[in-house]
Amino acid sequence: MYFLNHAATFDITNRCTYPVWATASPGEADDSTRAKLGRTNCNFDGNGRGKYESEIGDCNGLLECQGYGSPPNTLAEFALNQPNNLDFVDISLVDGFNIPIEFSPINGGGRNLLCNTPIND
């Protein structure tokens, strides 16, 4: 992890050649520690239920994840407003790799983090 001062806004931009569905980990709205994962090949109906064409990041067929999704999934993790008013971000492959992720701070308070290739390739 590295430090970013006063970071609280995350803009998610998909630069992949395929659709990616971003979702946040479940929890209270004021919970300061979160993970985002990207899901691919999603199809949902008007009730937020669906069938996946693949198992990458599946949340039991639901649009709104109740858990962290099924592996493999690349996680973008962040902890906001930690001691000394610091924010932390990291990219985790603990559940495998499914999409490339990059953190790019815009305020000059840190450096880019990038994971664009599976670690076993």
UniProtKB/TrEMBL annotation:
Transmembrane segment boundaries: none
PROSITE patterns: THAUMATIN_2 (PS51367)
UniProt KW keywords: Disulfide bond
Organism domain of life: Eukaryota
Disulfide bond entries: 59-65
Pfam families assigned to the protein according to its UniProt record, in alphabetical order: Thaumatin (PF00314)
Protein name stated in the entry: Thaumatin-like protein
Biological source species: Solanum commersonii
